[in-house]
Amino acid sequence: MNPRSVLACCLLAWLLPFVPAAQADEPPAAFTQASDGTDFYPFAIDEDRLAGPPAQTALNHPLGPQDRLFVKQGHFYAVGPDGVPDTGDDVRVRLFGINLSFAANFPSAAEAPALARRLRALGFNAVRLHHLDFHLNDPQASADAEPKGILTTGPYPSFDPRAVERLRTFIQALSKEGLYIDLNLRAGYRFRPAIDGLPPLDEGRSQLADVDTPIYVYEPRLIELQARYATTLIQSLGLAGNPALALVEINNESSLLSAWQSDIWHGNDWPRTIPQAYRGILRAQWEAWIGRRYGSLEAACRAWDRCGDPDVAALPAASLFGAHAASPSLMQRLGNRLERGLEQWLPRARGDSAEPDPDGRYAQDFLEFLTQMDRRYFERMRQTVQAAAQAPVPVTGTQMSYGGVLNFDSQAAMDYLDDHIYIGHPSYANGNSWQSEDWRIPDTSTAGAGIGNLLALSLRREAGKPFVISEYNHSFPAPRGGEIPPLMATVATLQDWDGLFFFDYADEPQPRRAPWYFSLSGNWGQYALMGQSARLFRQTLIEPLAGQAVLPLTHARRLALARRGTINSGTLAADLEARYGATPRLAWSRQIAEKILQDPAAGDAPQPALADAAADATPDGSVRHDAARERVILDTDQIWGVFGLLEPGESLSGRFFGLRLAGGPKNQPVQVLATPLDAAGLERSQHILLSLGSATRGTQPGSMPPRPTALIPYPGKSGWLTLEPGPLSKGPSGQLGTRAPAWLARSDVELGIPLPTGDIRIHPLDGTGARRAALPPEAYRADASGGFTWVRLQATARTASPWYEIEIAPGLRPAPASTRSPRPPAG
């Protein structure tokens, strides 16, 4: 996550009143209706006391020498009891992780065990330590000042001993609870020339280097400082030889390729990447590259048809798709600022391997040069990391979205590939993410348009390497944001990926009590589905797809695609569709990966037609997508879920459960997930957890009696939403950092169970996972035969909860599925 988007969430914390610890309060007597007619009920989760069916604590064990990770056969494995990689006792490990940002990485010694237990209870087995380097602590601050970063205001890298000790203690607590570490190196530090002993930036510019412009990739002094930072960080945190260190990321969301090829998110990055005092260093490298490629500058200028240029070796003044470049830069800028996740809004162009014209040849050469510079930087840092770690810890360079198809080349020596994805990312007024009272989100869903974006990530995987998504979210206040944890886990499981890291838990060590920007803590309608999503991915409750499509991607095509647009503009997807018929929907039926052909002379190998490229379901029907209803259904013996729109009068059925709306005149979104709590499958289970995700809101400031903040249309922008402004707001939007209590939207559905009423008992669970009183008899309604029961879970506010524990009477089970009607009766 770029700090310009994240840091805004930290700036308003002081505005909110102190909120006491959550309690397992009595349920409300009645629902509270929002202005759009949606019913809400207040609900608080006490994360420190969470136990019972929602808690996934049993998935983890304390980490030991047998848990050290390495790469084997394109996946992550633990070395096993013999402590030796590549032996018979190696164990496959999937990382289901969570991001921590800023101060959340530095809990006190008393807070660290509690935070680690909270994360374990949700089923996480890894933590991404993000933005350790953004905030700089004052070394003269009082002893009770809370550290927000690992560094001080001294010359880079000056470590804060107190922050180091806190994080070291926290890592020990995480390891004890079975959580690995994904260590981010350069994420947010902005080099300060006057303090760090570096050449000055251009006149009139801030003395802080921009956080996402990579002068540090090519400036030798900066590379040495980063190597010193990485070595000291790993050693100081006790991570040398420590099996808790699972992954290391060198550089978050930045590369030279990205800076020149695109202007994602913040405008034209390239001029900021080459300040005058630094330009000569990069130019010297460029001239050396030209000499190796062409033998002389004269030969290069003839190839480029630029011999009339008085300074033919000058660095480009603007980015490839910058302010003075031709389209698609305009659409890229608009598309990325409006909605980074909705790739289908952006232009698509097919790349080809045809010989470029002279101007295209110049662009191609400069892209190859930048690829080499990125690669040199990544490989130097990887060598430093693995030497400091005293182990071949898996390392990656940066995300695939930040460099695109040529990242396959710049990261050829990296151990795994990584990317980020957001559905419905907030868009801030005038692109200013610091603006907290003028923002909007698109009215979209993961199960609808967003599912194509998740599937399209499969086109960025390289055959033979682990694939990780280290940031994903559909953040507050998205009404259907709860869909993304289970659906991200579903796609990753089908594709047999290796790691998922939700962004984020929080930006401070204490749990939230109400929704807050990207935080999971406090967004209880999303939180409620996370534990079962962990089980889905880590225990493969859906079988990975058996078929594979390995798609050749030649060197020439990678260069052609990079010239035509960023990977987020759809160039790779369009090319693969044109050549092989491989659309993102192919990911419903086969595992997809790119075969990266490194030989520049290699041509495309013939590929058979992909007859299943337009599938909307897995071959066994265990996952089905209905685009018209923006709905995804999961249906196996180990998991059942419905995410999307239900129509009045419509009755869905699975292998065991049925689902329908309890009433209402219009379509309603549902987020329902069921998993067995015993060793049996759903059809034989006697103990089941059913979770209802939902929209979550904070309390509207100044409301009396308290009520949930309304989600309203953004003024003048059809299809966009925002929160209603507060009484003191100066803009059209309410703040994304909200007040407690949190409110959950009612999910007024009926659950169908093919059993007599007397065989079923259902308990709503409170915010600690403990049982409340069982649903009253009037919540159950038997059909005419008496053998099928419909249960209205949230008939009243007193029975409303995001979690329900279902008990089935022993020995009284329905006939096997093969002898039962495949659909429940409608009655």
UniProtKB/TrEMBL annotation:
This one is known as: Capsular biosynthesis protein
Q: Which residues form the signal peptide?
A: 1-24
Where are the stretches annotated Disordered?
Answer: 601-623
Q: InterPro entries this protein is in?
A: GH
Keyword set for this entry? Signal
Q: Which residue stretches does the UniProt record annotate as biased composition, category Low complexity?
A: 601-621
Q: Which domain of life is it from?
A: Bacteria
